[in-house]
Each structure stands twice: as C-alpha cells, then as structure tokens.
Amino acid sequence: MISFLDFYTPANLNFEAVSSVVFYFTIYSLFGWLLENSYSYVTRRQFFKPNFFHGPFKPMYGFAPLILVYLIGPETNWGIVLLLCFFIPTLIEYISGALLQKFFQRQWWDYSNMPMQIHGHICLPFSLCWILLSFSCLKWVHPSIVSLYGIAQMFWTWIWPAIILYFIAELALSIRRHSTRALDKTESPNPIQ
C-alpha cells in the first residue's frame, strides 16, 4: 500500500540514510511552506504569511511525513495508518504552536474561533484535513519523492551538508530575531508584531 522510506534501523543509520532524511525533510518543509502560503492566498488574498523561518521552509511539515513514513510499513493496518495520519501531524502542530508561544510569546496560527480546538494550536477540522493530506502524501507523493531522490542523489550527496548548515543558521537567526521581538513586546506597552 505505502512505499516505506528507505530508512535503516536507527542503530544502522549511515551517511546515505542521513542524506535521504535531509532530502525528504527539505522537500516536505518546502511543500509545507507552499501549501500554507497557497492556503493563505486562497483565504486572505495574501501569499506570504508570517513564518518563523525567514526562508521558504516549514519544518513541522518536514517532521510529520518523516515520522509517518518511519512508523508505517507496507503491512500496517489501514486503521492504524489513518490514526497515525490524524495524530502525528496534530501532535506536531500542537507541540510546535505551544513551544513557539511559550518561547516567543507569539502565536503564528490561531484556531481559537474553530470548533473543538485546544489552546488555539489545533482544532478538529484541520486535524481531519491532516488525515487526507498525510495519507495522500504517503500513498502518492512520497513514492514520487523517493524517485526524485534517486535521480538527484549524486548531486545531493555534494550539497546536503550545506543544507544542514543552512537549517542550523536559519534556526539560530530565527531564534535570535524572534527572541528580540519577544523582549521588545515585554518592554514596550504597545508592541508591534
């Protein structure tokens, strides 16, 4: 049913496996950025929506497919697949939202006006959307991305360490940028977001 990511057991994680994980994480983080900004354009006529990272990546969209592909094998029961497609992205979205709010006193998304929401970080309607998106990703998108990796692997072997350095730099700069804004908000009576 689902093309399992060519992961090796964590004890046997090697250079090639790390390279493929970074590739999939990068592609899915970029897809997440495109998806969120496209949704923003359709709903608000504004393509660029505020992002924690400066560049075109949404890491929570990179983590969710990787975890799902790691947990779901070809023999996994459909019911378990659907439950994981519901819980993994929802859990990642909640943890991401809670951590961002705790450390930077800012909510990048707010589902407070949606039904069955928790702290504005997650809500049932979007969690149900995660099932469809995650299942589609596992069933149709990921096999294509695996094929793309096979084509790009020789080139990717040379650049993936630079991509890791980019993500580390992006994370450090984003933490610094948003920490400064969080400090400014606590010191100023009228903070500007």
Automatic annotation (TrEMBL):
UniProt entry keywords in alphabetical sequence: Membrane, Transmembrane, Transmembrane helix
Keyword set includes ATP-binding: no
One Pfam family cited in the UniProt record for this chain: ABC_trans_CmpB
Positions of transmembrane segments: 17-35, 56-72, 78-100, 121-142, 154-175
The protein's name in its UniProt record: ABC transporter permease
Naturally occurring in which organism (per UniProt): Neobacillus driksii
Lineage: Bacteria, Bacillati, Bacillota, Bacilli, Bacillales
